[in-house]
């Protein structure tokens, strides 16, 4: 499929079947598998999660599409379970959280560098520095609450450093909205990027909402609430990049294209043969979904899917360390803030955001407290105390 | 049976990727934290929550007291019956979960044929049956005191949180027999200590019948503990220990 993105028809929908044994396979090894295998598993769960939720929202608003959505969603839901169930049970909720932020950091860095539109790329760099800071805060929590080293999850791919301090990420509602791309002008990869990053952020927020209350430590409970609040801002930010004038079928088509693209990125980079098989199989399934929706697009909208889809396979995601890129963004852009839809210098930040931030942080800041004086060091900071 | 842990490609630790590790260590060393206080900030948040915290819960009022019927519990008034009921509730829950814990290890040992490694499945089945009987003993004791054995007491709740990881290790198909028994050792250490304390509490409250009924369980728990210990030494040491499984 070097020529056309949608040339291969993949697996037909009728043949996309599962057994419980296939859905629940042996998980990956937390200790032995490459950190990017974890990153891919978490990312694909997010993509499938978005697929299912998007299709539900659509079904609630469209009588005609309902049966089609039900058929495709039957597969999406099992894909999601198969992917999410690759997480091993010895990986604690906090360790998994470190994995989630590594996804946010490395995937956003990859997208930011691939993105042809300068405004969209700037928004990604803006969000990147925030998730980068979350990784640092959660690493401090993992060290100071459980006495564990976050780098055993990150495997030395990703820096553990302060980014744009989480305490300063809290913004007034309207300062989280961004300017949408124009559906008639934006490159297909730009649309795929927005869909992909929104999915990743949405699942991260959901994950924090689910696991935050599992913690007994009040500092952990506070930190999860605080960072989940930023993830909600990120969802608001990224989804507002989508053109609201796209038709619902156009949006569905883009979702399936995003799934094809992301599974393709995974299968090309996977080192674990078992995971690679899953990515290959689901890539075929997604091509099947894509063609199913392409048909709907033709018959219902009487439009050519080629006007929405990329002509050929876009540059794939890079699952590799992006440290030098991230450090340069950190140096140049940590001080940026927002004013309405614009990303601005610190001194031009909106007064609404400053007021909102002062209000939420009035009784103290969990993200500041947890990482007060914290510098990551191999083997946890206790390793330094006994040096 | 599965072999012991082998050498292989474990990717954790800085030595797995020396060049990258050197790079991130350098960056972290040169970084400036956004707040220069220490970890005492965390302590302040925790302190304020501790000061304002409500307990996990309370003990249910025994049904017979609600009905105004005189019970043994009332005679214990002033002698901290709450403590006894709370701890009995804990023991009951622990023995009940303990039965499930042994069911899990029986299954694992049968599949992995632990008999050949000197860990007889039959012994594990006996322990499982004993845990179940202990559950019955505590249930009867609670009922004789007029308390509800189906209620979850706060001590039962806290103990279940504390031991939650034990079952998780044993029920993981990937964990070895050795890893599983090390988890069970934690349960048996707590089991043994708790029966001892429970009997002393019952004696102090002059509940002679209850204390007497618990002594058999205590003796069996002692055997559980000693047996698990000796299996662990057999699995880890080349010199076999003199302590062998008791015939009890
Ligand atoms: Fe899917
Ligand atoms: Fe984040
Ligand atoms: Fe985020
Ligand atoms: Fe799909
Ligand atoms: Fe027991
Ligand atoms: Fe026992």
Bin the strand percentage of chain B. Answer: under 5%
Please state the second-level CATH architecture of the largest domain in chain A. Up-down Bundle
Q: What is the β-strand count of chain B?
A: 0
Which small compounds were modeled alongside the protein? Answer: fe (ii) ion
For the sheet with most strands of chain B, the description reads:
none
* Shape, principal axes of CA atoms of chain B: flat
Write the element-wise H/E pattern of chain A from the N-terminal end onward: HHHHHHHHHHHEEHHH
Tell me, rounded to a whole number, the average pLDDT of chain B: 90
Instruction: Give the uncertain stretches of chain A in residue-range form.
Output: none
Low-confidence spans of chain B: 242-248
What does this structure look like?
The complex is a heterodimer of chains A (387) and B (248). Chain A is an all-alpha fold and 387 residues long. In chain A, 60% of the residues lie in helices and 2% in strands. Chain A contains 14 helices and 2 strands. A two-stranded antiparallel ribbon of chain A has the order 1-2. In chain A, a hairpin with a 2-residue loop joins strand 1 (337-339) and strand 2 (342-344). Chain A is globular, with a radius of gyration of 21 Å. Chain B has 248 residues and is mostly helical. Chain B has one domain (51-240): Ferritin. Helices cover 66% and strands 0% of the residues of chain B. Chain B has helices at 18-29, 40-52, 63-66, 72-75, 81-111, 121-144, 154-171, 177-204, 208-236. Chain B is flat. Mean pLDDT of chain B is 90; it is low at 242-248. Chain A binds chain B through residues 26, 31-35, 88-90, 144, 151-152, 155-162, 165, 167, 216-219, 222, 321, 323, 327, 364, 366, 368-378, and chain B through 8-14, 16-17, 20-21, 23-25, 27-29, 31-42, 44-46, 49, 161, 168, 172, 174. The complex binds fe (ii) ion (6 copies). The site of one fe (ii) ion (FE2) has 6 residues of chain A, from helix 2 and helix 3. One fe (ii) ion binds next to helix 5 and helix 6 of chain B.
């Amino acid at each position: 499929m070097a020529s056309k993105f949608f040339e291969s028809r993949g697996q037909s929908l009728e043949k996309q079947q599962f057994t419980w044994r296939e859905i629940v396979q042996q998980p990956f090894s937390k200790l032995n598998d490459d950190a990017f295998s974890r990153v891919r598993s978490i990312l694909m769960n997010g993509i499938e999660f978005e697929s299912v939720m998007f299709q539900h929202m659509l079904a609630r608003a469209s009588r005609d599409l309902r049966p089609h959505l039900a058929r495709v969603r039957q597969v999406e839901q099992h894909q999601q379970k198969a992917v999410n169930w690759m997480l091993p049970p010895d990986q604690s909720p906090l360790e998994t959280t470190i994995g989630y932020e590594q996804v946010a950091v490395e995937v956003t860095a990859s997208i930011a560098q691939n993105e042809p539109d300068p405004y969209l790329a700037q928004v990604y760099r803006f969000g990147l520095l925030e998730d980068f800071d979350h990784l640092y805060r959660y690493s401090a929590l993992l060290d100071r609450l459980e006495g564990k080293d976050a780098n055993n999850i990150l495997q030395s791919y990703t820096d553990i450093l302060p980014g744009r301090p989480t305490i300063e990420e809290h913004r007034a509602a309207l300062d989280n909205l961004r300017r949408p791309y124009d559906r008639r002008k934006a490159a297909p990869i730009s649309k795929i990027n927005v869909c992909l990053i929104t999915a990743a952020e949405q699942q991260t927020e959901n994950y924090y909402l689910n696991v935050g209350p599992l913690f007994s430590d009040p500092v952990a409970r506070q930190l999860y609430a605080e960072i989940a609040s930023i993830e909600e801002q990120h969802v608001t930010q990224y989804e507002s990049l989508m053109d609201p004038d796209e038709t619902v079928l156009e949006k569905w088509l883009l979702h399936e294209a995003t799934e094809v693209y992301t599974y393709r990125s995974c299968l090309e980079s996977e080192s674990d043969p078992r995971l690679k098989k899953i990515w290959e199989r689901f890539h075929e399934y997604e091509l099947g979904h894509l063609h199913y929706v392409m048909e709907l697009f033709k018959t219902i909208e009487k439009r050519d899917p080629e006007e929405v889809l990329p002509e050929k396979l876009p540059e794939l995601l890079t699952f590799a360390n992006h440290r030098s890129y991230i450090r340069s963004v950190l140096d140049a852009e940590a001080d940026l803030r927002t004013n309405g839809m614009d990303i601005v210098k610190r001194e031009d930040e909106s007064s609404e955001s400053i007021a909102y931030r002062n209000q939420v942080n009035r009784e103290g800041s969990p993200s500041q407290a947890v990482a007060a004086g914290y510098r990551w060091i191999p083997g946890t900071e206790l390793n330094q105390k006994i040096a | 049976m599965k072999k012991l842990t082998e050498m292989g490609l474990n990717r954790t630790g800085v030595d797995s990727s020396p060049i990258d590790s050197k790079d991130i260590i350098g960056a972290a060393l040169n970084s400036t934290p956004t707040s220069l206080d220490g970890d005492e900030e965390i302590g302040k948040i925790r302190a304020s929550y501790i000061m304002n915290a409500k307990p996990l819960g309370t003990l249910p009022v025994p049904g017979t007291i609600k009905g105004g019927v005189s019970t043994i519990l009332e005679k214990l008034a002033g002698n901290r019956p709450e403590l006894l009921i709370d701890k009995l509730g804990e023991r009951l829950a622990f023995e009940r979960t303990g039965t499930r814990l042994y069911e899990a290890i029986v299954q694992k040992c049968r599949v992995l044929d632990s008999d050949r490694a000197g860990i007889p499945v039959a012994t594990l089945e006996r322990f499982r049956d004993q845990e179940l009987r202990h559950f019955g003993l505590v249930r009867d004791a609670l009922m004789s005191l007029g308390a509800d054995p189906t209620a979850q007491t706060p001590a039962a709740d806290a103990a279940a949180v504390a031991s939650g990881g034990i079952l998780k290790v044993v029920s993981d198909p990937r964990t070895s027999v050795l890893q599983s028994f090390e988890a069970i050792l934690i349960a048996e250490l707590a089991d043994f200590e708790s029966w001892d304390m429970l009997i002393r509490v019952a004696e102090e409250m002059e509940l002679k019948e209850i204390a007497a009924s618990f002594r058999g369980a205590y003796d069996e728990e002692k055997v559980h503990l000693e047996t698990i210990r000796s299996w662990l030494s057999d699995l880890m040491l080349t010199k076999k220990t003199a302590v062998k499984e008791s015939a009890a």
